[in-house]
Amino acid sequence: MTSLVGECESRVSSVLARNTKELGKQHMFDGHADTCWNSDQGTPQWIMIRWQHPVVIKSLVGQFQGGFCGGHDTIIEGSDGNGKWQELAPWHLEDKGTEQILELSQSPTISKIKITFNTSTDFHGRIIIYKLDIIGNKSL
Question: What InterPro entries does its record include (predicted)?
Fold first, then answer.
């Protein structure tokens, strides 16, 4: 198993005040504990990740700002690139600042993954993520 985020392209629903330099999506993957992606307000918020080649996903690792996470209504979806999404699992996030791991019971082969935060524990619907990692393998 290895981290798959180094070989991906990512998109996010929004960035707080459009400040991509200080609060952009790249900070979820940079390995620095003091940087983060901070969404703007409103729900839902989402992250979409795409790979050039199919991958097999085993788990997701996230570290959120306590008070600014997706709560109990976060959905993980995958697509093999055909345009159709299938739900892989709900992610029942706790409102805390430590790492949270979602192990997938089935390990799908996909080329895209989407994490949708339908609600937030923040009153304004913001999401703050310090770390996002996706663990798995390249599909053979």
Answer: Galactose-bd-like_sf
At 60-100, the pLDDT tens digits run: 999 999 989 888 899 999 999 788 999 999 999 999 999 99
| Phi and psi at residue 20, to the nearest 5° | -70, -25
Q: What does the alpha-carbon distance between residue 23 and residue 56 come to, in Å, rounded to a whole number?
A: 29
Exposure letters 2-14 (e unless 16+ CB within 10 A, then b):
eebbeebebebbb
Cα–Cα distance, 139 to 65 (Å, whole number): 33
CB 13 within 8 A of CB 48: no
Distance CA 90, CA 85 (A): 14
Token pair, residue 47, equals 């992250």
**Structure tokens of 65?**
């700002």
Q: What is the pTM of this model?
A: 0.95
CA distances to 66, 80, 113, 133 from 26, rounded to whole Å, are 20, 24, 16, 12
Q: Assess if CATH 2.10.109.10 describes domain 2-138.
A: no
Each domain of the chain, given as residue ranges in start order, spans 2-138
